[in-house]
Design a protein that fits this description.
single chain, three-stranded mixed sheet, 5 strands, 34% helix
Length: 152
């Protein structure tokens, strides 16, 4: 992944949590990043209001949306028991919690194929790791579970 530069900015879109703005400004120069947020007013299970706000940087031509990360978070909650809202499941240790997240991330990026479309026609199925050039094939659970990890 390339580092952001003024001619190749990084774009960040978040919810209204105030902590994001400070950390993004701390890590990235405003000339290399653009940041916008979407703030939803929710009551019960209903969205009452949606406020979209550009915080800094040039966001022209970019739709401010958090739907992709919200979908990813939902997928994570569905597959990792301690992340389910209002559950009795919990991680007894930080090491166990991190291990569950690592397995989820590996499966999502190396095992689960994503469909690529050209208009209405499906052209191929590849994993995110294949799309990024990190892997050349779809891993199996057997390969993952039998893989020896070498610590550097």
């Amino acid at each position: 992944m390339d580092l952001p530069f003024p001619d190749k900015r990084a774009f960040f879109f978040t919810d209204g949590n105030f902590q994001y703005e400070g950390i993004i400004k701390e890590i990235y120069s405003e000339s290399c990043a653009a940041y916008g947020k979407i703030i939803k007013t929710i009551k019960g299970n209903s969205v009452l209001d949606v406020k979209i706000e550009g915080v800094f940087g040039d966001l022209k031509g970019h739709k401010i949306s958090t739907s992709v990360v919200e979908g990813y978070n939902n997928k994570m909650r569905q597959r990792i028991a301690p992340f389910v809202r209002k559950t009795a499941a919990f991680s007894k240790s930080l090491k166990s919690h991190v291990a569950r997240i690592n397995v989820f991330i590996f499966a999502n990026n190396f095992i689960e194929k994503k469909r690529e479309w050209n208009g209405l026609k499906k052209i191929k199925e590849r994993t995110p790791a294949m799309i990024e050039g990190i892997a050349t094939y779809v891993w199996t659970w057997r390969e993952f579970l039998q893989c020896n990890v070498v610590k550097i």
